[in-house]
Amino acid sequence: MTQADAYVSPRKIADIERLRGLAALLVVICHIAGTFYNLNITSPLPGRVFGWIGACGVALFFVISGFCIRLPEARALHTHGKVRLDVREFLIRRFLRIAPPYWIALIASIGAGYLYKTQQIDGAHSPLDIATHVLVLHSLLPSTFYTINGVFWTIGIEVHFYLAYILFANRPARVWMAAALLVLALAAYGAASRLMAMDNPWRTVGQQFFITSFWQWYIGALIADWWVKRPRTGPGLLLWPARIVLFVFTLALGLTDPKVAGLHINGWILPCAAAVLVLLFVIRPAGAGEDSPLLEPANVLGRASYSLYLFHPVALSIGAFAVAGRGWPVWVGAVISLFLALALAAAAYGLIEKPLLAWRARLRKPSAPPREAAVA
Length: 376
Known about the structure:
Blueprint lengths: L13 H24 L10 H33 L6 H29 L11 H8 L17 H14 L9 H21 L6 H7 L5 H16 L3 E2 L1 H17 L6 E2 L2 E2 L1 H17 L1 E2 L10 H8 L1 H22 L3 H33 L14
Parallel strand pairs: 1-4
Antiparallel strand pairs: 2-3
């Protein structure tokens, strides 16, 4: 923002942070199932669900990211009306939040690739692979899209979201714009599917280009604009059952694979379900007091979710190496990988993310009050 008074008092939405932690954990479970039991989204039922929960986690990440990134601007626009995004500050803050942990995870992933190759860690380390990943351009080329660390493609897409958001930041999010972006996404995805053969390596790039998923991120921004007008509360006796039922429904989508005009529609229904789930999590139970200490593990998981997402493929590579070298049962490798992923995430958050967040706060203009604490 250009004006100091455009900053708003920090208000962390704890339930969103916990949901973000759950999203990261879903991706970890998906990749554990794929690495040690070869279960993915194309597996026969019920194993297909383990692949599906990874897609659920990514959809939640996209919507939550849109909500959290938009929230400060949504509050400022609602309060002041004429504020404008300081693009330079926005990009610096995003860089400090995303890039350093990502680059360290990149180095760790290359090292893990020398140790043991898995579905997520392929051992790629060519100059092209490294250069495109360092510059976050890897999602633009089929030869580097999934290389080094299989989850990094979403980081490339996320950076594109930030750049696209600059075009929309200074005006309220609108339902009609979300609908227009969805139509554009369907057109882009359909064009890539129709014009490129299944064995064409550019097909994946076209289908996963940020245009096909920016509508999900924008829905998160739409929820943020709605929420700031009057932070909502709801009946606690109904809110949590509604959250659980919707979460189960979202997982159950993975049991089916309906098609419309030859298009698999589950992947398009999923982000809508994820958006409703986010909506239910930004609504706070009426009369809720201080958080229970029992929720602290979920809070910690939420804070470390970015590191968990980045580093868990490294943990899986180490776990798979231990199983292959010692002949242990695969379930032992799965358990080792899960706990190692959590340990790496805690260490990366404490040693990398947390100090960077504190440093980023000190770089803020002295005249400006603290910005939104819920921003990813």
